[in-house]
Amino acid sequence: MNDALNSVFRPKSVAIVGASRFPGKIGYEILRNLKEYGYKGKIYPVNPAADKILGIKCYHNVLEVPGSIDLAIISIPAKFVPPVIDQLAEKGTKAAVVISSGFSEVGNRELEEDLIRRARRGGIRIIGPNVFGVLYSPTRLNATFGPRDVRPGKIAFITQSGALGIALMGWTVTEKIGLSAVVSVGNKADVDDADLLSWFREDENTKVVLIYMEGVVDGRRFLKEARLTTKVKPIIVLKAGRSKKGMAAASSHTGSMAGADVVYSASFKQAGVLRAENLEQAFDWAIAFSAERFPKGNKVVIITNGGGVGVMATDSCEAAGLEVFDPPEDLKREFKKYMPEFGSAKNPIDLTGMATHEEFRGAMRSAIKHKAVDCIIALYCETAVSDPIKIAEVIKEVFDLSNKPITATMIGGERVNEAMAFLKENGVPVYPDTERAVSAMAALVRWMERRSL
Ligand code: ACO
Fold first, then answer.
1. How far is CA 391 from the centre of its chain?
2. Ligand 1 centroid distance, CA of 18 (Å)
3. Same domain as 247, residue 330
4. Is 7 exposed, middle or buried (0-12, 13-18, 19+ CB in 10 A)?
5. Residue of 276, 341, 409, 447 with fewest CB within 10 Å of its CB?
6. 44: CATH
7. Residues 365, 367, 370, CA angle at the centre, nearest 5°?
8. Distances from the Cα of 149 to the Cαs of 32, 176, 266, in angstroms?
9. What is the number of the ligand 1 atom nearest to the C-alpha of 18?
10. What gap in Å lies between CA 422 and CA 78, rounded to an integer?
């Protein structure tokens, strides 16, 4: 199995069957992404009517390709796909990504069965059909018709929805979120989430797996792989189709059998999988996991220059199961060095509106050093006496020194946006509101608790 998925993510050669001569067509854009994202292996466009596309020599059919083909990306009308699978089998190809729609998702089950029968006979694993492709940033493989310049990172994103997946790829670029992989699984006629989990579990470039799921094909196998994976790296699932009508919509979208939602929730919990409520939350958590700092327990220190945000964060912590504990006297004495008389060294640590980056530095350094503290949430409200950029630099400085997790919230105007961009660029989990910083920290704590069960 791993061999076939190695061919998907680390191919030495890729054929694009249905590479088009015309910009704007799917087969053209995939070829262009592959070339321009910087893939270094051999690229073989296949098109019966072309000799060259984008300056790359073209072959009229798969059998004409001179070398071996590790991975084939197939973008031709559905009914022509099965015979191409036979040709690829003759070439010894181990994996194919079938972009084409028009299979079981529109009731055309026979065609899909024919495709899979031929693939099994030929020893080829299939991703799809009905997908937008596969991206793996460590090998600079962008075989999708999504955005080209995806930021490299540590999140593997598996999506059953195509359009949503493509849209999110673009959004991660704007949000400065790095991805190790994007896999569009579509109809999951062969390779499914369980197969991918077993591969990403071993993949050193992936630190967290995020799945947008409408349904699973083989629940038992998924849970088995998930259980093994969550022992070593977290899995975040956004499972859509909760309501009756949502389930029906999922079934006509990707042909999924969506089971009772409570069963999914209970099974995820047992397997140590974190279930997110929405996309924002799923990525918020994934960003925190990408930082690779894990709490030993749930004792949190909130450090802030704003009383109000401190109170809001305290409420959220309590609801999320984080303990805003009363710091021991020695730590309180330390905190007091960095605040005026009227500050508060009780948790939340209120450095007051007079605080500059120096006070944040002192208080945050004291917190990461003290053994009673498991994790730190830093909250900053923009004031005229402090410089958001310097605050962000201090947060990064402490984050770099710390093996305890830190999440941050910065609230304010244009300079705060710049400061947050700096933190994101440097992999520090920062969010525009307190609840999100708390929720991300709580996800880290929950994963640590569940994996040790
Ligand atoms: N081998 C190699 N090339 C071939 C073959 C073949 N057997 N047959 C045709 N071609 C060539 C064609 O000549 C054409 O080249 P040209 O554009 O230079 O003339 C190219 O392959 C494409 O073939 P077309 O018949 O023009 O097909 P078209 O590009 O219009 O559509 C496609 C193919 C994209 C696979 C379409 O059938 C399809 O399924 N579209 C939906 C894809 C999709 O949305 N997938 C899900 C993604 S997720 C989401 O929802 C976003």
1. 28
2. 6
3. no
4. buried
5. 341
6. 3.40.50.261
7. 110
8. 12, 11, 38
9. 21
10. 46
Contact between 233 and 198 (Cβ < 8 Å)? no
**Lateral strand order in the sheet of 13-17:** 42-46, 13-17, 71-74, 95-98, 125-127
- Our CA angle for 154, 189, 35, nearest 5°, is 50
Report the run of H or E that residue 73 belongs to, with start and end.
Answer: strand 71-74
Q: Which domain holds residue 181?
A: 2-289
* Residue 453: predicted pLDDT: 65
Dist CA 402 CA 293 (whole Å): 8
Does residue 313 register a pLDDT over 90? yes
In whole angstroms, give the CA distance from residue 112 to residue 129. 8
Give me the number of domains the chain comprises.
2
Q: Report the relative pairing of strands 52-53 and 42-46 from DSSP bridges.
A: unpaired
The pLDDT, as a whole number, for residue 216 is: 87
Q: Is the CB of 77 under 6 A from ligand 1?
A: yes
Verify whether ligand 1 is closer than 6 Å to residue 130 (CB atom): yes
* pLDDT for 105 beyond 90: yes
Q: In terms of pTM, does the model score above 0.85?
A: yes
Q: Which of 262, 289, 316 is the last residue of a domain?
A: 289
pLDDT tens sequence across 106-165: 999 999 999 999 999 999 999 999 999 999 999 999 999 999 999 999 999 999 999 999
